[in-house]
Backbone:
């Protein structure tokens, strides 16, 4: 069960209402240029990048 999700302000999250409804959760947005507000997300992205480089086209 997901209690909440914190997104950045990227265009890929334009349909956050659908995600909120589908997962029955609350969506929050971090302020621009304040990545520490999404600490777990930034850490996870770093771990993923070890295996899937950004240039591969996945997770862009």
Residues:
């Amino acid at each position: 069960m997901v209690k909440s999700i914190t997104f950045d302000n990227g265009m890929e999250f334009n349909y956050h209402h659908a995600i909120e409804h589908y997962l029955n959760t609350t969506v929050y947005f971090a302020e621009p240029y304040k990545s520490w507000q999404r600490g777990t997300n930034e850490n996870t992205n770093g771990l993923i990048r070890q295996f899937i480089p950004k240039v591969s086209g996945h997770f862009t």
